[in-house]
Amino acid sequence: MPDQLLFAMEVTLNGLMTGVLYSLVALGFVLIFKASGIFNYSQGVLALFAALTLVGFQEGQVPFAHLINAIFGTEIHHFGWHLPAILAILLTLAVMVLLAILVEKYILQHLVNQEPIILFMATIGLAYFLEGFGDIMWGADIKTLDVGLPQGISETIDETTYEWFGYGFFIDRLDIVATVIAAILVISLTLFSQYTKHGRALRAVADDHQAALSVGISLRFIWVLVWSIAGFVALVAGIMWGTKSGVQFSLSLIALKALPVLMLGGFTSIPGAIVGGLIIGVGEKLFEFLIGPMVGGATENWFAYVLALVFLVFRPQGLFGEKIIERV
Amino acid sequence: MFYREAGDFKTSYQDDAQTFPIKFDRYRYYAVIAVGLLVIPFAINDYWANAVLVPFLIWAIAAIGLNILTGYCGQVSLGTGGFMAVGAYACYKLMTAFPELNIVFVVILAGFVTAGVGVLFGLPSLRIKGFYLAVATLAAQFFLVWLFNRVPWFYNYSASGQISAPERTVFGVPVTGPETSAWAQYMICLLFVVVLAWAARNLTRGTIGRSWMAIRDMDIAAEIIGVNPLRAKLSAFAVSSFFVGIAGALFFAVYLGAVEVGEAFGIQKSFLALFMIIIGGLGSIFGSFAGAAFMVLLPVLLKNVLVGGLGWPTDLAAHLELLIVGGLIVFFLIAEPHGLAALWRTVKEKLRLWPFPH
Prior knowledge:
- The complex is a heterodimer.
- By secondary structure, chain A is mostly helical.
- Helix content of chain A is 71%, strand content 0%.
- Chain B has 2 domains: 1-43, no CATH class; 46-266, no CATH class.
- Chain B has helices spanning 13-16, 23-43, 46-72, 80-97, 103-122, 130-150, 182-204, 207-217, 219-224, 229-256, 261-264, 267-280, 285-309, 314-335, 339-353; strands at residues 163-164, 169-170, 173-174, 258-259.
- In chain B, the strands form 2 sheets. In chain B, strands 1-4 form a two-stranded antiparallel sheet.
- In chain B, helix 3 crosses helix 12.
- Chain B starts with 12 loop residues before the first helix and ends in a 5-residue tail after the last helix.
- Chains A and B meet through helix 3, helix 5, helix 12 and helix 15 of A and helix 6, helix 9, helix 12 and helix 14 of B.
């Protein structure tokens, strides 16, 4: 087989893996959008915040150390213990649930029945708030996150492909783990929304707020629930991205890429988020590989958005989205 | 007491339709203009020009531009930074290609170039609405910044990839380049602000502005009563981009002098402009000014208080600024969704009855 084709195959595979990571972030968006009609811009920052908190707990950092030092002139920074990964993850999860409760109580509750665009802007405000809050709480320096996930080149795939084609593919083991976890997450979310009481309530709210209220579903509980789940998904995405490229501010920018993923897949579809993520992941990697060198490279910055833009002109509701019906 | 219509008789339709129907408002407006033109240029120093006044004036233009698109026509845009970059680079290319051309015309031409680009990226708005459009404008933001970074023609093949403004003069006074004095910077920006704000105010209360508002309130209904959505949306994109382009050109040529595109016109700038109009008030020219003033002054104030006054490290102050800005946006959306402009309106209503409310 010619080298060029093999390279292209490797790029495609890597693109698929990146796509899975995009999908993970996009999944959080879809969940909240379905349940509350809120386009939650802060999902990316949620992932960053979750990752920061996780690292903070693991390393035993003192929260707000920077601020306390500035006010009282002290020199504290660490408690001096290291928590095991699983405990830190559970603690972080608790923080995300707490955050969901606070968001519901102090923001969403006051914005019921507002126009979607107002809610969208409120989540932008929330994103900025959380970003500043996370930085003040845990410090803004780049942190490494290690919860014991396997990393580095997968030798098995390298050797197998070498035997088959005479060329070893470079696949990161972390990406494989991410793919498996994403699959588990999607399946369990689907099971949850199909077969449990709260899952059904969630879908009822998504269908019609008022009808759901009138049959006795608590809207507030559902919102807290869905924001908690979104926080959980954000934590998973944060762990994956954080392990891959360190916990830093750019994490929330990577999350912006989830937006074109959503537009491709449709805002209301969980499979759409996955398929959209894969298309964007493969598309941008292949484009960079084939066309990138001709136009100066770094096309990954914009390709996803332009692809989504062109795509939307032909199909405004995305691949799997519900058809948009407008009435006067 | 002073603030009422009583005794202010309107004897013609023209009087009746004026922008400031109340005498007190009118005189206040003239007074502000007079102070801006006659007092500040003589009192200004480098610090005030660079930290407060010039950025305020330039951002006010950008905010008015975005407000026309988002506040009046209802099309949310996250591409302001990208369009400002178009204005800046168009200004740079025109400045270097036609050194004889007066800088004022160069800036205006840069506005027209940006308007063209804006219409191009506005075309999808005919098919795409709401959030989908907001995300689609992100395509403009990232693509344009990438384009100016990667295609050497735009920065005249300079080794650093930066663009820097050569010296240009108006009536013999340098307004761009390193020799510029603070008052000249201030005056050229003020000139543009006054003319553009006047134009925006009159556009938005005329036929075209009404068609924008009809589209904003409900586009299908507007189409049924005979508003042409194609014309309304694209004209909003064009006018808005024209303003934003001029803001970008001034930001580059007059304020910064030298620009690296990713840093000066990144996505953060798009959000900054959006916050200005949310906090100031969607669909209000005064709100654009109020929002711009607020968002320009807040960091300066925080920095002076926290870093200068309390001696905190600068990065902590920067994080606190993010936190406060985010919190304020949420607060404004909950407490006063129409922003500072609505607060101002309430104050004026109360003033009319003062000191004898019902």
